[in-house]
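Lecture notes, part 5. Sequence design as translation. It can be helpful to think of inverse folding as translation between two languages: the language of shapes and the language of residues. The source text, in structure tokens, appears below.
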């Protein structure tokens, strides 16, 4: 692996993003870009201690990958919200079953949201968010509609049940509508 060739490949990959439609990418373009440069991301692991363009490429790749993974989970979050809305608010057994069924998915979403380089409130009215690691590029994410609602349902109920079962004191007030940009 030649360092200068790797640097040039990283620069070329970033230039592809810059040449995107008005410096804007969407989930389809992002998915294609990620697939096209997956082996480069793996190859750059040899140069983790180097800064510059290789470090920037790796940071941008990781950021785009995280956002793309989050976006692709929105439909499943919508299905979860619909299923929850069919449960009577006093049916504790059904709520518990819903929480158990969606436990892994809920944790995945919590992790992805916490690992994002932007807050859900940073999404512009046009559905754009600026990449933190490449401010000249915007990611079109107007299709995240159900994730905040799912997390508001899941997180508050799940973690209050965990505290209840473990006997932990409730040191936190409430998660409330933390994940909903409209209710922040």
């Amino acid at each position: 692996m030649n360092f200068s060739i790797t640097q040039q490949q990283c620069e070329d990959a970033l230039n592809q993003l810059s040449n995107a439609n008005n410096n804007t990418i969407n989930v389809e373009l992002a998915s294609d870009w990620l697939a096209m440069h997956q082996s480069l991301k793996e190859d750059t692991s040899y140069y983790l201690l180097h800064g510059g363009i290789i470090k920037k490429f790796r940071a941008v790749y990781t950021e785009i990958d995280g956002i793309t993974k989050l976006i692709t989970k929105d439909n499943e979050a919508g299905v979860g919200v619909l299923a929850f809305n069919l449960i009577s608010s006093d049916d504790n057994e059904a709520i518990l079953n819903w929480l158990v069924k969606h436990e892994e998915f809920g944790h995945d979403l919590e992790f992805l949201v916490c690992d994002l380089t932007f807050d859900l409130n940073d999404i512009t009215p046009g559905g754009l968010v600026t990449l933190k690691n490449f401010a000249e590029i915007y990611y079109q994410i107007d299709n995240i509609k159900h994730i905040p609602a799912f997390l508001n349902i899941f997180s508050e109920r799940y973690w209050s049940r965990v505290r209840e079962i473990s006997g932990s004191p409730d040191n936190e007030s409430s998660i409330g509508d933390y994940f909903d940009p409209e209710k922040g």
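The translated text above is only one of many valid answers, since several sequences can fold into similar shapes. Residues 3-166 form one domain.
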